Amino acid sequence: MNPIDLTAELAALGATLDGIEQVLDPPAMRARVTELEGQAAAPNLWDDQERAQRVTSELSVLQGELRRLEELRSRLDDAAVLTELADSEDDADALAEAESELPALRDQVSLLEVRTLLSGEYDPREALVTIRAEAGGVDAADWAEMLLRMYLRYCERHGWPTEVLDTSYAEEAGLKSATFQVKSPFAYGTLSVEQGTHRLVRISPFDNQGRRQTSFAGVEVLPVTEQTDHVEIPDTDIRIDVFRSSGPGGQSVNTTDSAVRITHLPTGIVVSCQNEKSQLQNRAAALRVLQSRLLERRRLEEEAEMQVLKGDSAGSWGTQMRSYVLHPYQLVKDLRTDVETGHTSAVLDGEIDGFIDGGIRWRRQQQ
């Protein structure tokens, strides 16, 4: 690439970064970081553990975003100076060094650009993710457990704290369902594009004839409720049952009736929590999940009313939003965005950024 073309591309990336900074507003982010640092330094911060976790999590995310913005701006400026120097002194090595930075700069600008697309009402929230085995028998239950690991690994890679609230184990292997909370700002906006049915094709490890099996698991993503949401649940609208927690291997949680199941009578929504040690903790966690599901129900009802008013016939997320083929070839493909990769083991180990970024861009186009 000649210096003129390289300079033009760096200038275009710089202009895109200017637009990103206008949306993210670094001065406001720095002011918020200062405010959160003051809260984090308070001696009584951990008297309220939930609030402390929210403060430290938001602080960590904001500091990381500011650091990425500042480092990216610095790298773009350095590459521009190096290109100018290479042009003025006809230095081929300096030009090659500047050009070698280009792919990484493109990727970083693209990642930050995706962040600016998270502008929905609930996008800044933490997320509640539920995975359920669907059609496919024991393979579907095993697939649900594989998806749980994939998402937990994804969150771990990004430094997002998670808490598994409920797991329902299948009889032979895998999970009937599992619910976990992702305690990071913008977790809902980011992970909500994963909602839908995930399809797995592979040679079944549970078939003694080694036949190929197709199985399905559903992913539901909800925003965590906040005090300002006003999702009131009268005591008369719920039934609370307690039962003995279940799990593999005779764990200590099995020895007491600490698990809690809450049924919301008007809607029939049932939630349960069994992963905390006490009945009170499980009850509080189950109520949070119920509030999130009622909030999502309200949001969908409002959205449906708006679609009727607009006369919009666009489809929903639909089923089989992503296909994971492990046999007879290796391919993971998103059926909405056409993003695909043959690195199936990396995807199942949590490397799903390309699919999520593609989903966020696709969602914005649909809107």
Can you describe this structure?
This protein is of the alpha+beta class and 367 residues long. The chain folds into three domains: 3-116, Methane Monooxygenase Hydroxylase, Chain G, domain 1 (Up-down Bundle); 127-225 and 317-366, Alpha-Beta Plaits; 235-306, Double Stranded RNA Binding Domain, CATH 3.30.160. It is built from ten helices and eleven strands. The strands form two sheets. Strands 2-3-1-5-4-9-10-11 form an eight-stranded mixed β-sheet. A three-stranded antiparallel β-sheet has the order 6-7-8, with helices on one face. Helix 1 packs parallel to helix 5. The model is unreliable at 249-254 and 309-318 (pLDDT under 50).
Total count of domains: 3
How many helical stretches? 10
Helicity, as a percent range: 40-55%
Question: Any idea what the CATH architecture of the largest domain is?
Answer: 2-Layer Sandwich
What's the SSE pattern?
Answer: HHHHHEHEEHEEEEEHEEEHH
Lateral arrangement of strands in the main beta sheet:
2-3-1-5-4-9-10-11
Poorly predicted runs of 5 or more residues: 249-254, 309-318
Shape: globular
Q: State the CATH topology of the largest domain.
A: Alpha-Beta Plaits
Strand pairing plus helix content: what structural class?
A: alpha+beta
| Major sheet | 8 strands, mixed
- Content of β-strand: 15-25%
CATH class of the largest domain: Alpha Beta
User: Whole-number radius of gyration?
Assistant: 24 Å
Q: Span between N and C termini?
A: 37 Å
How confident overall, as mean pLDDT? 87
Record field, number of beta strands: 11
